[in-house]
Design brief:
By secondary structure, the protein is an alpha+beta fold. The protein contains three helices and three strands. It has helices at 37-46, 50-53, 98-105, and strands at residues 7-13, 68-74, 78-84.
């Protein structure tokens, strides 16, 4: 029987009011208030706040553990994040990144 693994792709749009919130954790370095809102959002995701920001959206492993954030890419429209128990291999055809599927939408 093949072992089931969980991986998830999340795309956060950076030009929304949600992304423009202040994501600095209290008690952190004082230099963080000089970071842009996008950098604050990126730091918050790397620091594990993704489960707090999007409760009920981020999947968990079959055993109930939190998924690891393996990769984060800065895109022109937002942040693309890849989560999983192991480094995921997301095929371009199944990606939620709009830059992958919008050019082909014009064929319809």
């Amino acid at each position: 029987m093949k072992k089931q693994t969980t991986h998830q792709e999340v795309f956060l749009m950076t030009n929304t009011t949600f992304a423009q919130r202040q994501w600095i954790e209290t008690g952190n370095d004082q230099n963080q208030h000089y970071h842009s809102k996008n950098e604050q959002l990126e730091d918050a995701c790397w620091n594990g706040m993704l489960y707090d920001m999007l409760p009920g959206i981020i999947a968990k492993s079959p055993t109930g553990k939190q998924l690891f954030l393996w990769q984060m890419k800065q895109k022109s429209l937002g942040l693309e994040m890849e989560l999983g128990e192991f480094p995921p291999t997301i095929e371009r055809y199944f990606s939620i990144d709009p830059l992958y599927f919008l050019p082909e939408k014009s064929y319809n």
